[in-house]
């Protein structure tokens, strides 16, 4: 059958198979709606944005395959979103077995297998690799427009992927490509508002990984338009990550190939940064938990620098540098492209690359190219080795100081520690929780409300110190942070050892207002810069006090706590006539038993786990929030405070219930 004939066939009466196939397809979509978490992780803002990534990834695949160099994302006023590419256009011909057009199958078949989920085609792949069908299933409506061979076609779906208008030709065109518009279903997502910043930083990230592809983002609500385009890729990625830091030397970048695995690396060291900031990707998907490529990179780096330092007489035999001393202050991006057949992950998600060949791919690239670089830039090499030795000395000195402090704490009254800490009684550290509470009065309530065996309370007096860019000595001189460091009892900065932590959860509990948001940001800055493993291990949380209590005026024992406007409406209806609403402006307005019930008790509270989702956005937001210039910080907080945790921080620091 020719293309034209296939298109003709579309309008013919479909075979009897059609109904059966259509029913199967629908039940697949219902499965997605019943358990959205299985497909997009959660229905919070992170999950909501998965709907976008699935569609963008398809457009990216088409561009990566060499079709179309521009992808446009538009946020519309009615809450819908459009993704547009300039590729070949999704095929519209009829699939023989089912009698359904290919484009319809792509948007309704979950495990269509074979041709429609062709692995060879799937290059970048979404987190769960389920594609456009999931976006359709979780949308109120979705429209696909295909520009193909001189014609424009349209098909639309509604109510979670049910066919609304079948595929039809709607006009002629000289363009080619695909345009998809959808509106997320409010029956699935508590919050359906897309975040411009989240989408913006993801597109920016993609533009670094896919040099040569242009991304355009338009927000019709504000008229703002941004473009992301990179000629060199990772080099520019590292430059943007270190923008607010003090670099040592230039960005160093290498590319190579090993057994069919393409490797790209860019890296730069900065002073006054105690963290190692390594971001790795496999086939343009972030591998947040590292894997064989990251391991190979680290091994290669440690060996190459040590070998070079030895042979240059900079360090003596037996005094080699440890990997962690070398990586202190390093920002690196590693990107590998693994052929489909060799792509393996460890664990359930795509967070950790398993492919064994990625390890030698990295070690061999680094050892040949980095040693060459060091020989070409000897002055830099000498500076770098000095920096690594300084890191080692600082680490050893801090460890010794800590051992001394541990042994002699009682004899040292000058070790500053706040007398306000109410410690937990249990020594089951994993189970213990440290609440950092804003204000003395809330601290008092929290002390009475707590479960003494497992919950400790540290009240804060006023705003904590802004630790962004501060040396450790300035941080340990501060009463609040000194107390916090000693309470957690696992060291600080390069000497921090998460296994020693006396608490399994660190919970920040502030008022739901501007000041509270600022305090959260200041504390998170401290944890991010000086105790990052706590965040990496998911041990830092933000408490969510309720915003309202709806009660029956005639019987206040009947009451419902509410965390958002929608819950408020439901609660009003439930309580019925004669209701009253109490709006909590701060933690201090709750008595201890209310505080326990709503915010602290394991059984009934809500917590947001702090996770770093998007390194690029985080670095940026940190510098806005915490940088020296306070004007943009206050502007930002004023604008975003109502959503500070749920929207903005969630886009950076992913929140989970
Ligand atoms: C806005 C979102 O989804 N773009 C896409 C294509 C192009 C092809 C394709 C997509 C064919 C049979 C799977 C065209 N011509 N943007 C997009 N552009 N999918 S998705 O094919 C899908 C395969 O089953 C395409 C020739 N080959 C592929």
How would you characterize this protein structure?
The N terminus and C terminus are likely disordered. The protein is flat, with a radius of gyration of 28 Å. Strand 3 and strand 4 form a beta hairpin. With 657 residues, the chain is α+β, with helices and mostly antiparallel strands. Helix 9 packs parallel to helix 11. The strands form five sheets. The protein has an eight-stranded mixed β-sheet with strand order 7-6-5-8-2-1-9-10. Bound molecules: ligand 28F. The site of ligand 28F has 18 residues, from helix 4, strand 2 and strand 8.
Main β sheet profile? 8 strands, mixed
| Through-space gap between termini | 53 Å
The rough form would be described as flat
What would you call the structural class?
A: alpha+beta
User: What is the strand tally?
Assistant: 23
Tell me the β content. 15-25%
Uncertain residue segments: 1-17, 112-129, 408-414, 636-657
Q: What small molecules accompany the polymer chains?
A: ligand 28F
Percent helix = 25-40%
Helix segment tally = 22
Query: What's the alpha carbon Rg, rounded to whole Å?
Result: 28 Å
Strand order of the largest sheet: 7-6-5-8-2-1-9-10
Mean pLDDT: 84
